[in-house]
Amino acid sequence: MLLNTKELLRIAEENGFTIGAFNVTELSNFKCVFETAERLDAPTIIAVAENEFEFCGKDYFRFVIDKLKESSVPFALHLDHGRSVKMCQRAIQAGFTSVMIDGSSLSFEENVELTRQVTELAHLADVSVEAELGTIGNVGTSDEGVETTEIIYTQPNQVIEFVEKTNCDLLAVAIGTSHGLYAKGTEPRLQIDLLKKLKKVSSVPLVLHGGSSNLDEELSKACKEGIRKINIASEYKAAISRALNRIMNETKEVKFALMLPAAIEEGKKVVEHKMRLFDSVDKAKYYRR
Ligand SMILES: [Zn+2]
User: Fold this and answer.
1) CATH architecture, domain defined by 5-287
2) Which of 15, 28, 252, 269 is the most buried (most CB within 10 A)?
3) How far away, in angstroms, is 237 Cα from ligand 1 center?
């Protein structure tokens, strides 16, 4: 089933679970996430970052969309961190059912205006829109990580006005996570009290970015307090890359059909772990009623 994220998250909200959005760049990533979602019957969001959109290309999107439509598991295909109206438009034309417009580096008014422009055109095509309020930090994507950039926490008093004015369907909030993998010795801390306040005032489902490497207990607390979508990229991709590296070094193998399956298996372990943590396993049944 291919749904938009509004429909996907509405059922998650009603039943109190959280859906993983896994950033997927090419076929081995897709196999890793898609096959795990099907095996665990877990509703899942397949996400593509704006800076990887060109590399993926329209034939890849067509293949992905066909697979998602044929599946008995509900999926959404989502553009992650779209920076412009034009980029969101391109994703909609490529068949995405959900787009994120990230105006978080702009002023509140400019963010409202940009997001509103995207919701206006996306809703015509029944495509959901994720917006971002507050700024999520950046730690880079290497295993070592780099210094965390500043996080500007989402202000609860701005949420109602923002959602009303933009008509967005889901909202990414900054409560203490950063993108990428954290440096060894750095422990991410989520502001759960802030999340509770945001949840109280938000009429749309809340999203957490930068969920790789956060402590399990923190992520699970965030799910319990109402986060409905968590983005994962670096952590499962790192598991695939590390395995691939090891296999190549140990065996001097060059055949991808022999190297990739074992590496993908390592990625699947991470994806499964996250799905269990988010409590999305065995939840596809709620969409088949
Ligand atoms: Zn993000």
Assistant:
1) Alpha-Beta Barrel (3.20)
2) 28
3) 15
